[in-house]
Design brief:
Shape: globular
Distance between the termini: 31 Å
Order of helices and strands: HHHHHHEEEEEEEEHEEHHHH
Largest sheet: 4 strands, mixed
Radius of gyration: 20 Å
Structural class: alpha+beta
Number of helices: 11
Strand order of the largest sheet: 1-4-5-8
Strand content: 5-15%
């Protein structure tokens, strides 16, 4: 089944693609990655109105839902832009009050969920003691640009969410192979949260599903771009006096990449639509998208690199941007193996663990 977008959704995706192409071409993206700059893209999203797409107008959003967020993530992956702050904002949104969400969409305050980006979002092993909150959370997306951390904790009355001002925590930037994403280690040392709200452990389920879908959509965009680059290069590069695109092995590789991209397209976008529709199976479908799409695109990256040869991994060539992004997408919020386990548990009709 090939997923079909509405005319309005196609126009949104095309408009966002044109905007990114004009404002953040590959040479600008490479410059931002080299300098470690992250805020320029976030500020442009807020200033030009893209920041609120995917959220209800009732909370100062631009309308749309998870499918629109997935379409945005796809374009961000296609252009390898530094969207960590945007992704962090999307993942924490289900855990915010309407007032907090409205403030975030207006650009007045930025929230980040203090969970490790190398694991499925889960309850952190942090406890709120009499002298405050102590502990560290590694690889937090959006940590460097956050104003407030939403920290899953265990309090006197059970699981809860602590609101901690970013100024009260120590944040150290993490070095990632993929420079288009930025994470940081957040350390709390007897910090007294501004507020701790009791909440059930299943409240992270919406964030878990979003993490799966948006990462899959990002990988889809990166995969589409790598396919374009590989096909384009095969029509230019010659060996033994012939274009390498005429070689049977290269044709097979391109065909396999195309199949992977087409399957990823329908899988990722259907998963987003399933969340919007409130389907009971949406969390499982999201897990399928994360496991299947990110794994397939990471393999596609190897094929694209093989077509390009060593030049594809050089800093001057665009392929390396998407190769690294695809590899991180596979590991982001847990590798396919972890998400396949969630699928198996769901199919066995057992409670799906949050972490």
């Amino acid at each position: 089944m090939h997923w079909e977008l509405s005319e309005e959704q196609e126009m949104f995706a095309a408009s966002l693609r044109e905007w990114i192409t004009a404002k953040f071409p590959a040479e600008i993206v490479r410059t931002m990655q080299a300098s470690g700059e992250t805020s320029r893209f976030t500020e442009a999203l807020v200033r030009d109105g893209w920041w609120g797409v995917g959220y209800s107008e009732a909370v100062s959003g631009q309308g749309g839902g998870v499918l629109e967020l997935a379409l945005a993530a796809r374009e961000f992956g296609r252009h390898a832009v530094p969207d960590s702050c945007w992704l962090a904002a999307a993942l924490v949104a289900p855990l915010l009050t309407e007032t907090e969400l409205a403030g975030q969409l207006a650009g007045a305050q930025r929230f980040a969920l203090a969970v490790p980006a190398d694991r499925t979002p889960a309850w952190a092993p942090l406890s709120v003691a009499e002298d405050g909150l102590t502990g560290a959370v590694r690889h937090v997306l959006g940590a460097l640009e956050a104003d407030v951390f939403i920290v899953p904790v265990t309090g006197p009355h059970g699981p809860g969410l602590a609101r901690v001002p970013a100024a009260a925590a120590a944040v150290e930037r993490d070095d990632l192979l993929d420079r288009s994403r930025v994470a940081g280690t957040v350390e709390f040392d007897r910090v007294r949260p501004a507020e701790v709200v009791a909440i059930s452990e299943t409240s992270l389920s919406a964030t878990v599903a979003l993490a799966g879908v948006l990462t899959a959509a990002d990988a889809l965009g990166a995969g589409e771009r790598m396919l374009e680059l590989a096909v384009g290069y095969s029509k230019q590069r010659k060996q033994f006096g012939q274009l390498i695109g005429s070689f049977q092995a290269v044709k097979h590789a391109a065909a396999q990449m195309l199949v992977a991209v087409e399957a990823a397209y329908s899988t990722a976008l259907y998963a987003a639509a399933a969340i919007d529709a409130g389907l009971a199976a949406a969390p499982t479908v999201a897990a399928v998208a994360k496991a299947q799409v990110t794994g397939a695109v990471a393999d596609l990256a190897e094929s694209a690199l093989t077509v390009h040869g060593a030049i594809g991994y050089t800093w001057e060539h665009d392929l390396q941007l998407f190769y690294k992004r695809a590899k991180l997408d596979r590991a982001l919020f847990g590798p396919p193996r972890v998400w396949n386990e969630r699928i198996a548990v769901a199919l066995l009709d057992e409670p799906v663990p949050v972490g």
